[in-house]
Amino acid sequence: MKKILFVCLLFSSIIYAQKPVFTSAKVTAATVYFNAAEITQTASATLPSGTSEIVIKNVADYVNESTVRIGAPESLTVLSVQFTRDYISEFEPDESSPVLKKVRDSITLVEKEIQNVNIAKYTEQKSLEILDRNQQVAGQQSGLSVDELTKLVEYYRAKRKEIALSENELNNKLNKLNVTLSELRSRLETNINKEEKTSKGKLVLQVMNDVAGNVPLEINYLTTGASWSPFYDLRADNISEPINMLYKAQVVQQTGIDWKKAKLTLSSGMPNQNNQAPLLQAWFLRFGVIYRGYDNSNAVMNTIAIRGASSINKGKAYEDVQESTISDYTTISENQLNVSFDIDVPYDILSNGKKHSVTLKEIKLPATYKHYAVPKLEKEAFLLAELKDYSQYNLLQGEANIIFEGMYIGKTYIDPNQTTDTLRLSMGRDKKISIKREKVADKSGSKFLSSYKEQTFTYDITVRNNKKEAVELILKDQYPISTDKEIEVELLKDDGAKVNTETGILTWELNLKPGETKKVRISYKVRYPKDKIIANL
Question: Fewer beta carbons under 10 A from the terminal one: N or C of the chain?
């Protein structure tokens, strides 16, 4: 008898251990990288002693299973961890909120009532068909008296009216029920959108517990579907004051779970990147087919780009949707490989693929302003802000909005990965600097010398400062460089410019007083065989 009792107890304990324990995880923190996110979640489960299966719901839709770490008390031993999106169990409880459950129950009742009304309508329609057939049969029968025929007609009229009225009432009721059903379904969709999204991802844990009771769990894993990118707002009221930089981040996540009141950390690292150092192999040359294709992958000039300008009135120029400053709540950490921003203020980042703006830091950047012009390419001057010792600000590559003198100027691009000590930021076009580059006709022309052709080019560049304060202007132009021994190039006049003989670029550094106009001249001569043509001269 004792043996039978022991077997029964053992069998029941096995059945009990196999019944999964369901729990839902909540996001408490997220470290967002440029191409992934490390999510920290908490959960708790009431477990018996012995082995159990825990199903943790509301984890990300896609999880790198090898990165999952489970934090648990010493009394709990995690035997295995598996990530799945297709877990199905008859024991899984319905965790709908009371509001959703009430709406769903109402929809079920209305649908049943619609079904009943449709059955009643079908019954009335069939009754009417039977009545019509009986009338035809009765009309074909002979021997009915006038009195009997009158009674039959009156019965048919009354019954048909009764059925028609009943069918009309059922149609009205059906229309009302359909309107109610449509409203309930709309309400259900609205409430579902308000509820926290439940992802398809689940973690299935096989555990062994020493002591029965409630066990807290901390879940940590790496997932794709999240990223961030830095961007900036650059504000300057005039060229005598520092730049006010608002350091921001655009966080995007589609992990399948909403991050509610989560502690954010933004890192410049890329955990999914290949971290294996490259090794050189022997380089063997072989004969083969020569293919010359045009590769324009590096055709973009390494310069600061300006996109557009706006002439909006001062004070209404830029609608800045910015958050309250949290500079005092952001800790910047820098190590050998990346920079991280720890934000103490909790954020709500929904899993909707939209860009969420996060303010990281406010920085005052001491800047030296200079104007820059290349009239051969652009007839306008650009205002440059030069930043020295910029590495202390932990800047990252990203776009920047420019707001100068209360106006939104356009966008520029910040690239701190430079080898120079000074970072130059383009603050937009300054239309108060007038520039004109024109060819001097009487100093330009062509002539033939035996078998050679000689062409002379002369240009005057005139600049005027129409501002009320003095400006420093970096002015650039160029002369061509020969790559063929039959083409001879000679620089005739540079007007005191710094000449780079390797690139042919001339640079003038001009100081212009308010209202002052200056002129510089560049002249060069090209000599080449007269039976040949230089295409890009």
Answer: N
Tell me, letter by letter, the H, E, C secondary structure of 436-488: EEEECHHHCEEEEECCEEEEEEEEEEEEEECCCCCEEEEEEEECCCCCCCCCE
Same domain, 336 and 246: yes
CA distance 22 to 58: 11
Q: Are residues 403 and 507 in the same domain?
A: no
Q: Tokens at residue 350, please?
A: 């929904």
364-402 burial: b if 16+ Cβ within 10 Å, else e: ebebebbbbbbbeeeebbbbbbbbeebeebbbbebebbb
Count of domains forming the chain = 4
User: What does each C-alpha distance from 24 to 21, 44, 48, 263 come to in angstroms?
Assistant: 10, 8, 18, 19
Looking from the CA of 242 toward its CB, the CA atoms found within 13 Å total 10
**Bigger pLDDT: 145 vs 490:** 490
- Number of neighbours of residue 518 by Cβ within 10 angstroms: 17
Handedness of CA 21, 27, 32, 36 (dihedral sign): positive
For residue 426, the one-letter residue type is S
339 pLDDT above the threshold of 50:
yes
At residue 289, φ and ψ (nearest 5 deg) are -80, 135
What element of type H or E holds 58?
Answer: strand 50-59
Question: Does residue 283 lie in a domain region?
Answer: no
Closest by alpha carbon to 207, among 435, 52, 346, 13?
Answer: 52
Least confident of 398-412, 433-447, 461-475: 398-412
In a domain, 5, yes or no: no
Question: Are 337 and 421 within one domain?
Answer: yes
Cα–Cα distance, 241 to 17 (Å, whole number): 71
Report yes or no on 277 lying in a domain. no
Nearest CA-CA partner of 351 in 87, 60, 2: 60
d(CA 78, CA 81): 8
